[in-house]
Each structure stands twice: as C-alpha cells, then as structure tokens.
Design brief:
By secondary structure, the protein is α/β, with parallel strands linked by helices. Helix content is 44%, strand content 14%.
C-alpha cells in the first residue's frame, strides 16, 4: 500500500475561522521521551490566513531548519506561549500528567486568550478553552507544527545551557535522550539532578551508586 506524505496545512484552522473563532492556538510539546531535563510545551496563535511555507513537524526538520523557522514563527505569530514542567514534576506526577501541565501552562501564558485550541494527541485536562484533538496534528495542522518547532528549539536550547551546569553528561549533544553515549555516562557518573528518577535506566543507575 502506498503511503501518502502529509504536510501541515490550514485545513483545521480555516474551519474554525469560518465559524468566527479567529484566535486559534496550536499546542505541541517536546521532551516526553528523554531520561533527563524538563518537558516543554508551546502554544502559537497566528492571524487568520498566515502561513509559512516549509513549517513542519519539528522531527522532520534538521536542527538548522528548526532554528530558521523558529525565528520566522516568532516574527509572524500573533502570540506565543511556552510552558515547562521540570524533571521533579515529571517524577512526582509521571510524564503524561507533567506533559499536560506544561501544555496548560503554555496556553495560559499566551498574551492573547485563544478562542479555540488545536492540540496534538490528547486533550488538555482542566483547560477552560474549547479544544480539538488531532492525532498526528504536528504533521497536519500548521499552527500545531509551528508549536512543535517552538517547543523543540526552546527545549534544545535549555539542554545546551544545562551542559555547562552539569559537565560530562553530554546534554548539549543528546539533549537528555536515551542514546548509547548517554547510557554509558549515566552508568559511569550516576544520575545528575537533571535526570528523571522515575525513568527505569536512571533509577537503576541510582541504585547501583547507592550500593
């Protein structure tokens, strides 16, 4: 069976604009899978009919492309909000609920209140704004794709800054993800304060350090 490539469009946004909901926010997150660092969510609102060609799911873009589109999104967006849940909150709540918390914080930090939110994946609990859940939304909706880029670049920059604070772990390279190099240094040095103890490889490394 032939797979048809999907690219973000304004299909979902236009339907809402036609209904008079002009402030449409796209929401997405970065950093669910890593063993270290926070999870970061972003919410982005554009003026109706704004479109930046080439904006796509952040995972489909090279780092230099993400940086370039990050700047363009900041230039053209009506409002951008960023929400962060720390590794301590991830350990306390679990990664799912910490991601929901970061997403809610991103929407709440918008300087303009959205009329409607398009979210990639699951609906955000306790959000007092109407939402639409789009599975694979970062590949289908322009504003969600833009949010994925803002979240990813913001988190990557945070992890690069943490590299100087916690030298030797390679955070600037792997950004906290579970690479072979990261696992090796985790076994050698043990967890840093940036690591998520609720993630099995980190917990196991912490136990070995205790004994």
């Amino acid at each position: 069976m032939l797979t048809v490539a999907t690219h973000p469009s304004l299909r979902y946004e236009r339907k809402l604009w036609r209904d008079g909901l002009l402030a449409v926010a796209g929401v997405d997150e970065a950093g669910v899978g890593p063993m270290a660092g926070p999870v970061v969510a972003a919410a982005v609102i554009f003026e109706p009919n704004t479109f930046i060609k080439g904006v796509n799911d952040s995972k489909q873009l090279r780092p230099e492309e993400r940086e370039a589109y990050f700047a363009k999104i900041q230039q053209h967006a009506l409002a951008i909000g960023v929400g962060v849940a720390s590794q301590q909150e991830i350990d306390k709540l679990n990664i799912f609920w910490a991601t929901m918390l970061a997403s809610r914080r991103a929407v709440e930090s918008l300087l303009r209140k959205p009329d409607h939110v398009l979210v990639d994946g699951r609906l955000i609990p306790d959000l007092p704004v109407p939402q639409t859940r789009i599975v694979g939304g970062d590949r289908k909706s322009f504003c969600i794709a833009a949010a994925s880029i803002i979240a990813k670049v913001t988190r990557d920059r945070m992890m690069i800054s943490y590299d100087a604070q916690f030298p030797g772990y390679g955070f600037a390279q792997h950004k906290g993800y579970c690479t072979r190099e990261h696992l090796a240094v985790l076994q050698r040095l043990g967890p840093s304060p940036l690591h998520r103890l609720s993630f099995a490889p980190v917990w196991e490394a912490a136990q070995r350090k205790l004994f």
